[in-house]
Design brief:
CATH class of the largest domain: Alpha Beta
CATH architecture of the largest domain: Alpha-Beta Barrel
Strand content: 15-25%
């Protein structure tokens, strides 16, 4: 979709998130094609995208949802019914386990300690039980904050800890093995990871009913090697006679959202022209600062004569979005569109400095726009007191 031609999004009060339904469908079709080809079961990782108003659309292509705790498990159970709900958390609270067991179908434990504490209860409740392993195979480049295999990582059970802490009775509880090592990556790093898992846990895999390859798979990217992914999946299914799960978030939501913003001011400091917009990296897309990365700006051009540094309106000196070039001089009041804002943006928003949360809209496949939710002062206030 040419968002530049969709003039009615510039009539929205900004800042505003706009979910692109057509792109969600395009991503879903790619995922469903791989699923049909291989028999693999794809789950929506809600930590990346929890726009549950669009779950009826995504459910046409997803086998279910993946949750990171109680609230996401409930959301997946309630908003994508008749689908599987998987949950993984680095550590569960005892007070939450009974409720989680009401919502989830599969539960993955991060350690033998947690498995021993809650595994039997979850099994009695009818859940399929898994353990997250750490194959100690880092494939990250420049995303250390997202590397679960970094030395000293708290995520997943290494083979050394598996051998020291897991008893035969513990292993009997297991239905599956889960590993998650990727972050917005291709099939080649997955192949390295799977080889490491086979080497480190090859004696355990034949006992499993399912193997979950985690998330971070950019399968809906045009340059993703889907043939290699199919080979990896088919090899695992043949070798271990197990169901194969993948739980991407990005693949479902990549390039499926926008953040419309307005230029509030333009200043200059030592030759740098600063554009202040009503979109804040710190408040509305924290990954810009945490990863870090520079989000695409639809109206920018690669070699434009007019160069600007974009930043938000907060007091944080580092609330900088990125540097962009244009083929025209920007003006105060102009509206612009940041792309790829469906994943890891709406789920991470905050109200630092009392920043208003952007309203959320959906751009339907017929180009009509519908507001899904509005946020105001009370949403800011009620998070901080009575």
């Amino acid at each position: 979709m040419d968002i530049k031609a969709t003039k009615n999004i510039f009539e929205l009060k900004t800042p505003a998130f706009v979910i692109d339904e057509k792109r969600l469908i395009e991503n879903g079709r790619i995922i469903k094609e791989i699923s049909d080809q291989t028999g693999a079961r794809f789950l929506l990782a809600q930590k990346a995208f929890s726009g549950y108003d669009l779950y009826p659309v995504i459910s046409e292509y997803a086998y279910g949802t993946e949750a990171s705790g109680l609230f996401e498990a409930r959301l997946g159970h309630e908003e994508m019914p008749k689908k599987e709900c998987h949950v993984f958390c680095a550590a569960y609270k005892e007070e939450d386990i009974d409720e989680i067991c009401r919502y989830a179908d599969h539960i993955v434990f991060n350690s033998p300690t947690q498995l021993k504490a809650f595994g039997k209860k979850a099994k009695r409740a009818g859940l399929s039980i898994g353990l997250r392993i750490n194959p100690e195979c880092s494939t990250q480049e420049g995303h250390g904050i997202y590397d679960p295999c970094a030395p000293g990582s708290r995520l997943g059970t290494t083979r050394d800890q598996f051998d020291k802490l897991m008893t035969a009775e513990d292993i009997e509880l297991l239905d599956g093995i889960h590993f998650h090592t990727l972050c917005e990556q291709g099939a080649e790093p997955l192949k390295l990871t799977v080889d490491a898992v086979k080497k480190g846990f090859g004696d355990i895999l034949p006992k499993m009913k399912w193997i979950n390859l985690g998330g971070g798979h950019h399968v809906s990217k045009p340059d993703y090697n889907r043939d290699l992914l199919a080979d990896i999946i088919n090899d695992l299914k043949t070798a271990y006679d197990a169901e194969i799960y993948l739980e991407p978030g990005e693949a479902f939501a990549i390039d499926a959202g926008y953040l419309v913003t307005t230029v509030l001011d333009i200043t200059e400091n030592n030759g740098t022209k600063n554009v202040i917009v009503d979109m804040s990296a710190a408040c509305h897309s924290p990954d810009i600062l945490e990863v870090p990365f520079t989000p695409p700006l639809v109206e920018a051009v690669e070699d434009g004569a007019y160069k600007y540094r974009f930043g938000g309106p907060t007091c944080l000196a580092g609330d900088v979005i990125g540097d962009y070039a244009f083929d025209h001089e920007l003006s105060i009041g102009e509206k612009l569109t940041f792309g790829d804002m469906a994943m890891y943006s709406m789920v991470k928003t905050n109200t630092f400095n009392g920043m208003p949360l952007p309203d959320i809209y959906v751009l339907h496949a017929d180009d009509s726009i519908e507001r899904l939710t509005h946020f105001g002062y009370e949403d800011f206030k009620k998070r901080l007191g009575s």
